Amino acid sequence: MRLSSFRLPRITQNMLWGRKMSESAGKVLSEGKTKIVRETKDRNIVLLEFKDSITALDGEKKDVLKGKSVVNSQISAHFFKLLAKKGVPTHFVEFVEPNMMKVKKLKMLPVEIVCRNIAAGHLVKNFPVKEGTPLNPPVVEFYLKDDARHDPMLNEDHFVILGIASRDEVKKIKELTLKTNKILSEYLKSKNLVLVDFKIEVGRGEDGKIYVGDEINGDSMRIWEAGTNKILDKDVYRKGASMEDVMNTYIQLYQKLLGKTPPI
Ligand SMILES: Nc1ncnc2c1ncn2[C@@H]1O[C@H](COP(=O)(O)OP(=O)(O)OP(=O)(O)O)[C@@H](O)[C@H]1O
Ligand SMILES: [Mg+2]
C-alpha cells in the first residue's frame, strides 16, 4: 500500500485531531446540499462544515468529489478574510482544519443575491443578452430561495410584501453586494482572473445588522482566466465535464488564489 493512500480509521483521526473532534461534535442545526451547520458552546457562533458533495440543477444532478470540502472551505475563508480586511461585515470568525469555518450565527434571509459583471448563465438564458457582454454598471439581482418555485426573481417591493427585509435593508444589501464585487473583482484581476458573476447570502446578526454569510468559492462564482476565458468554477460540472476534470478545476482555482497545492 502506498503511504499516501493510507488512512487512519475515523475514530483514531478524531483522537489525534482533538480540536476537530470537539469542534465537529456539536448538534447538527441544519444540513444542506454542501454544508452542515453545527452548534458550538457559544450560542452566537456556529460551525459550517463543508461536504465533499457537488450539485447542480436544483439538486437534480449530484456527485461526490473527495477533497472538495477542504478546497472550498479554504477558498471561502480566504475570501472572507479579504472582505473583512476591506471593511465588509461578514460572519467569518476563523477557519477550522480541515474543512470548517467558525462563523457568527445569523438569521439568514431566504434570498440569494447575484452580482454580474459579464453576461452568462441565467441572464443569457432569460434575457436578450449575448454571453460575454460586459455589464457596466454591474447588474444586481435578488432571488427567493424556494426550490419548489424554482427560486423566482425578487424586486424591492417583493422583499417588503413578503416581510423579508425593509427598503432600507434592501438598499444596504445592494451596497454590500457592490462593495463585495469591487473588492473581489480587483483582487481576482491581480491574479489574472476575471470575476464574471457571483452569488452571496446574507443574514441578520444578534445586533440586527446585515452580514455576508454562507460561502464564497468556485461553487458560488463564475471565474474565467483572463485572456483565454478558461472556466475555473462549477460551470465545468454544469457543462458535463468528467469528475476528474471538475476536481482539477477546483484545485487549479485554489492554486491560483492561495499560491500552493491544497492539502488533500
Ligand atoms: N452564519 C450562518 N448562520 C446560520 N446559517 C448559515 C450561516 N451561513 C450559512 N448558513 C446556512 O447554512 C446552510 C448551508 O447549507 P447548504 O449551502 O448546504 O444549503 P443548501 O443545500 O444550499 O440549501 P439551502 O441553502 O436552501 O438551505 C444554508 O441554509 C445557509 O443559508
Ligand atoms: Mg447553499
Which key terms come to mind for this protein?
264 residues, 8 helices, alpha+beta, 14 strands, disordered N terminus, binds magnesium ion, seven-stranded antiparallel β-sheet, Phosphorylase Kinase, domain 1, binds adenosine-5'-triphosphate
Structural commentary:
- The chain is α+β, with helices and mostly antiparallel strands.
- The chain folds into two domains: 3-104, Phosphorylase Kinase, domain 1, CATH 3.30.200.20; 107-258, ATP-grasp fold, B domain (D-amino Acid Aminotransferase, Chain A, domain 1).
- 33% of the residues lie in helices and 29% in strands.
- It contains eight helices and 14 strands.
- It has helices at residues 10-16, 18-24, 68-85, 121-126, 156-161, 167-189, 235-238, 243-258, and strands at residues 28-31, 35-39, 45-50, 53-56, 61-64, 92-96, 100-104, 107-108, 111-118, 134-144, 153-154, 193-204, 210-213, 221-225.
- Strands 8, 9, 10, 11, 12, 13 and 14 form a seven-stranded antiparallel beta sheet that branches. Strands 1-2-3-7-6 form a five-stranded antiparallel beta sheet. A two-stranded antiparallel ribbon has the order 4-5.
- Strand 10 (134-144) and strand 11 form a beta hairpin.
- Helix 3 packs parallel to helix 8.
- It is globular and about 45 Å long.
- The site of magnesium ion (MG) has 2 residues, from loops.
